[in-house]
Amino acid sequence: MDNLIEIRGVRHAYQTGAGPLPVLDGLDISVPKGEFCAVVGPSGCGKSTLTRLVAGLMKPDAGEVWLDGEKVTSPRKTVGMAFQNPVLLEWRSILDNVILPLEIVAPAMPRRDRVARAEALLEMVGLEGFEAKRPSELSGGMRQRASLCRAIVHKPDVLIMDEPFGALDNFTREDLWQTMRDLRAKEPFTAVLITHDLRESVFLGDQVVVLSGRPARTQHILNVDLPQDRTIDVLYTQKAADMLHTLRDQIKIAQGRAPEAA
Amino acid sequence: MESLRRIAVPVAAIAAFLAVWEALVRINGWPNYVMASPSDLPAAYAQFWELFLVGAWQTLWRTVAGLALAVVFGLLLGMIMGFSRVMRDALYPLLVGFNAIPKATLVPVLALLFIGQHDFNTVMMAFLISFFPIAVSVGIGLSTLEPEYRDILRSLGASRFTIFRKIALPKTLPEFFGALKVSVTLAFIGTNLVEIVSPHGRGLGALFLSGQTNSNYPLMFAVLIALAVLGIALYYAVVALERTFAGWAERQAT
Ligand SMILES: Nc1ncnc2c1ncn2[C@@H]1O[C@H](COP(=O)(O)OP(=O)(O)OP(=O)(O)O)[C@@H](O)[C@H]1O
Ligand SMILES: [Mg+2]
Question: Is A7 a member of any domain?
C-alpha cells in the first residue's frame, strides 16, 4: 500500500443522553507518504472526531483506519498532534515543553540529544532565544509555533493538526503557513490538517477533502496542483481562485445550501 | 529596599495592634482579671517558658501529623473522584454531609472510641477536620482537566499513571496548595479543640485551660498569642512550599 494514511468507510456515532448521534458516515481518505491533506467541512460535522480516530484515541464503530500499513486500534508513538489551543504546560519552559514527547517515546535518549533536537526545531520556527521562557511570556503565535515543535519533535510519521491556526489573527496565520511549509521541506511527516480557512487549505494542502454536513462523509476531493514551494502570492493566481471557488461551492452544498449562480 | 518594606510593613502593623490593645486596657482601667494587656505577657512567658515550649511542640507535631494524613487521604480521595464519575457521584454527598457535621461533636465520639489515646485522638481530629478541602480541590482539578492536555500524551500511548504524573498532578498543584492553606488552619483548630475540650489534655490548648482554672489571665492571653504565632508559622510554611512547587502559577507583576 502506497498510502501512509488510509481511511476506509469509517462510521462513528457518539452515545448521548438523547440516543446515538451519528457523526461520521462513510468516510474515505487516502494520503500518500509525505503529502499534506487538508480537511474542511461545516462546523460540527465531525472533523475533530476524525482526528481522534486517526490518532487511535477512539475506535470507529465501523470501517478502518490504516497508518503505514498497520490497522490503528490504539494510540501509537508515531503520531504527533497539535490543537487550536496550544496546550503548553505552564510549569515547564518552552524547551522542556517541546521535549515532553521524547520523555515518553524515547526514554533512553540522553538529555543532551533531546535538547539539541528541540533547539534545532525551535530555531527552525524562529523561536531561538525563547527556550527558557514560560509559555505565558510568549504571544499566541509564538505559543502555537512551540506547540508545532512539540508535535514533531519525536519525528512522527503522521502529524495531525486540528485547526492549529484557528485562533490567530490573519497576519500571524499567514506567517505560520510559511513556517509550516518550511518545516515540511525539512521534516518527513505526512500531515492531516483540519481547518475552516479555505485559503489555508489551498496554500498548505496537496489535496483538500471536503466533508459533508453531519453525519459527515467524503463529499469532494480537490487536488491542489500548485508547485511545492508556494508563496502567499500563489493565492492570488487564477488557478488558486478557481480552486477556492470550487471549495466554496462544495462547502455551500455541505451546509445544505445551493451554490450561488455564477 | 523591597525586602525591607515587606518585613517592615507587617511588623509595623503588629506593633500598632499591640499599642492599641495596651491603650484600650489602660484607658478603660481594666484590671488583669478582666483583660490582660500586652505588657503583662512577658512576665507570663518568663514564668512558664518551659511549659510553652513543650506545649507548642505537642500542638505543632500533632497538627502536622494530622495534616500529613489529610494530604495523603485527601489526595487519594481526590484522585478517585477526579478520575471516576461514578465514584464522584457516590462520594460527594457523603463528603459534604460529613463536612457539615460540627467537629466539636466528634470530640466525645473519638474519646469514647479510642479511650485514653490522647495523641491519637488529637491527630485524628486534625485530620478529619482538614482533609475535605484537599479532596474536593484535587477532585475538581483532575476532573476539569481539558481533554487536550490528556491527549498530548495519550496520543503517544502514555499510561494513565504517566499522564497523571506529568500533566494532571502538576496542573492541579496550584489548587492543591490553595486548599492546603485552608486545611492547615483547620487542622490547627482541630488540634486545639481537642486540647482545650478534653480533660488532662496536652499542648498549648491544655496550657490555656490550666490558665483558666487558675484564673491566670495573663497566661491565657499569652497562650492565645503563642497560638497565633504558631498558626502564622504553619501558614507561611505552606506558602513557602507553594512557592517552591507551584511558583510557576504566580503571575508576574507587569
Ligand atoms: N464526546 C462526545 N460525546 C457526544 N457528542 C460529541 C462528543 N464529541 C463531539 N460530539 C458531537 O459530535 C459532533 C461532531 O463533533 P466534532 O468535534 O468532531 O466536530 P467538528 O467538525 O470538529 O466541529 P468544529 O468545526 O466546531 O470544530 C458535534 O455535534 C458534537 O456536539
Ligand atoms: Mg473541531
Answer: yes
Residue A255 near ligand 1, beta carbon < 6 Å: no
A109 found inside a domain: no
Q: What is the pLDDT of residues B55-89, one digit of tens each?
A: 999 999 999 999 999 999 999 999 999 888 899 89
CB of A15 closer than 6 A to ligand 1?
A: no
Give the residue numbers spanning the domain of A250.
1-75+197-262
Report how many domains make up chain A: 1
Task: Assess if residue A161 is contained within a domain.
Answer: no
Q: How many CB pairs under 8 A join A and B?
A: 62
Cα A148 to middle of ligand 2, angstroms = 18
Reduced to 3 states (helix: H, G, I; strand: E, B; else coil), residue A211 is strand
Q: Predicted confidence band at A3 (pLDDT cuts at 50, 70, 90)? A: confident
Indicate which atom in ligand 1 lies nearest the CA of residue A44: 23
Contact check, Cβ <8 Å, A55/B146 = no
Domain membership of residue A214 (yes or no) is yes
Q: What's A248's domain CATH number?
A: 3.40.50.300
**CB distance A42 to A251 below 8 Å:** yes
| Alpha carbon distance A26, A10 (integer Å) | 5
Our CA angle for A113, A115, A117, nearest 5°, is 70
Q: Is A23 in the pocket of ligand 1 (CB under 6 A)?
A: yes
Cα A194 from Cα A78, distance rounded (Å): 19
Quote the pTM value: 0.83
List the grid coordinates of B118. 490522647
Give the integer Cα–Cα distance in Å for B75 and B119: 24
Would you place residue A199 in the very low, low, confident or very high pLDDT band (cuts 50, 70, 90)? very high
pLDDT at B252 > cutoff 60: no
Residues of A in contact with B252 (CB under 8 A): 136-137
CATH superfamily of B44-253: MetI-like (1.10.3720.10)
What's the pLDDT score for residue A259? 66
B128-184 pLDDT tens trace: 999 999 999 999 988 888 888 989 999 998 988 899 899 998 999 999 999 999 999
Sign of the CA dihedral running A13, A4, A161, A75: positive
Q: Give Cα B68 to chain centroid, integer Å.
A: 11
Which of A11, A16, A21 for mutating ligand 1's site (highest number of atoms within 8 Å of CB)? A21
| Domain layout of chain B by residue ranges | 44-253
Judge: A91–B158 Cβ closer than 8 Å, yes or no: no
Q: Do A55 and B155 touch (CB under 8 A)?
A: yes
Q: What is the pLDDT of residue B254?
A: 47
Bond into A215 cis (ω within 30): yes
Out of A32-41, A192-201, B115-124, pick the least confident.
B115-124
- Ligand 1: does its nearest atom lie under 6 Å from the Cβ of A48? yes
